[in-house]
Amino acid sequence: MTNDDAVVNLFALAHPGRLNVFRTIVKAGPGGIAAGKIAESVGIPANTASTHLSILTGAGLLTAYRDGRSIIYRANFSHFSELVGFMVEDCCEGQDEAAQSLRAFFKGRPVLADAK
Q: For residue 103, what are the domain limits?
């Protein structure tokens, strides 16, 4: 991942509405969730959800597929893991204390442990 890629991804997540949408999709798991259910879960209009979903998908954080009349969105866990890895590696370079603190924080957290 390049610095420019990281900026695009962080921009996509740097909005309260988009972050809520992303978290909702992550919580839905690998099967994903329909766009209408996302808007309903987050409590936003469908057109606002569509804008957020477009930005997150364009950044590579989500994938989408059509299922009948619905569009199902799934978190791109490998891409998100790459972003987190990039940030941790960049931030902890040469900083043993920071690396130890992050390892302690993530220890035993199944989502991140499974992403390796």
A: 78-114
Q: Side-chain half-sphere of 70: how many Cα atoms within 13 Å?
A: 12
Kindly state whether residues 18 and 67 are assigned to the same domain. yes
Angle at 89 between CA 88 and CA 92, to 5 degrees: 75
**What's the pLDDT score for residue 110?**
59
Other Cβ atoms within 10 Å of 15 Cβ, number: 15
DSSP string over 54-88: HHHHHTTSEEEEEETTEEEEEE-HHHHHHHHHHHH
Count of domains for the chain: 2
CA 79 to chain centre: 8
Q: What is the pLDDT of residues 32-47, one digit of tens each?
A: 999 999 999 999 999 9
Whole-angstrom distance, CA of residue 91 vs CA of residue 85: 10
